Amino acid sequence: MSLTGNNTQTGEVQSPNVPANQGFMASIYGFFDGIAKHTKGVALLVAAMVVIGVAIAFVMNQRDEQAVSGRNALYSAHKSIETGIKTMAEAAAPAAPQPAGSSVPKAGPDLNAWMFKKFDVDAKLAPGVKMLGDVSTKFKGTRPGFEAELELGNLYFNHGEPLKAVPWFEKAALGAPSIFERALAYSSQGYALENAEKYGDAAQVYEKALNLGEETLKGDLLLAMARSYEGAKEFVKAKGVYDRIIKDLPSTEAAKSAENFKSQIE
Questions:
Q1: Cβ atoms of residues 261 and 242 within 8 Å
Q2: Maximum pairwise Cα distance, the chain
Q3: Residues 6+ apart with CB under 8 A from 225
Q4: How many CB atoms lie within 10 A of CB 246?
Q5: How far apart are CA 198 and CA 206, in angstroms?
Q6: Helix, strand, or coil here: 247?
Q7: How far apart are CA 154 and CA 258, in angstroms?
Q8: Distance between CA atoms of 190 and 225, rounded to whole angstroms?
Q9: Domains in the chain, ordered, with CATH?
Q10: Contact between 153 and 127 (Cβ < 8 Å)
């Protein structure tokens, strides 16, 4: 009895005793046979995959370490600024002497009173300013770098030096982690320019923030732009922005403010 038979449709020779899943099993055997014949190539592929995996793990670990280092450096800079302001506050208003034997804790200086006090930031807070600048440089493009730039901008602005705040807010905008934070940083830059009476420049920066498309900030940014045009004595442009607010943001507080401000320049 012959062990083989002919497939009358395909002409292929088949064994009558081979199970129905012969094709699948043959593929499996073929796959492993190919591996056996190309062991060197497979080993190289595995080695390459291991190297790639190690490289990815290394990069991720480096990023984690950088993030921790950035946060620590930012915290140290912030504490330096806080210490500097506390030192100035204590020198300006020394704490009253405590009665002998008193158990009442000595009251510290009122730091809130110094939040917006005008002084030379570079001269009075030099160590902290340098530390924040170093964070900006060393951790550029990271959240600690962004926050250091914002803090520097706020320091200058809050203490009466808005023009020194402008470049730091711009740096923060360019390195912002999100579109929303970028719009906020540009808004801060515009506000600093406005307070420095650079009204035309302020209007342009507010427009740049608007073009980012953050709808939650649209009303405030348009009002700021119109206010800047008023400051620049460009009343036609200011009225045009107020009209835009009334049209685009009907029945909102921004629209109510726009109607009020527009009526004052007509």
A1: yes
A2: 121
A3: 203, 206, 207, 210, 241
A4: 17
A5: 12
A6: helix
A7: 28
A8: 9
A9: 24-91+112-265 (1.25.40.10)
A10: no
Angle between helices 218-231 and 179-195 (to 10 degrees): 20
**Spatial contact of 223 and 258, defined as CB atoms under 8 Å apart:** yes
The amino acid sitting at 86 is: K
The DSSP code for 110 is -
Residue pLDDT, tens place only, 69-87: 999 999 999 999 999 999 9
Distance between CA atoms of residues 50 and 74, nearest Å: 36
Count of all residues that appear for the chain in the document = 266
Closest C-alpha to 207, from 250, 193, 197: 193
Radius of gyration of the CA atoms of the chain, in A: 34
* pLDDT tens, residue by residue, 159-215: 999 999 999 999 999 999 999 999 999 999 999 999 999 999 999 999 999 999 999
**Structure-token match 């990815």, residue found:** 56
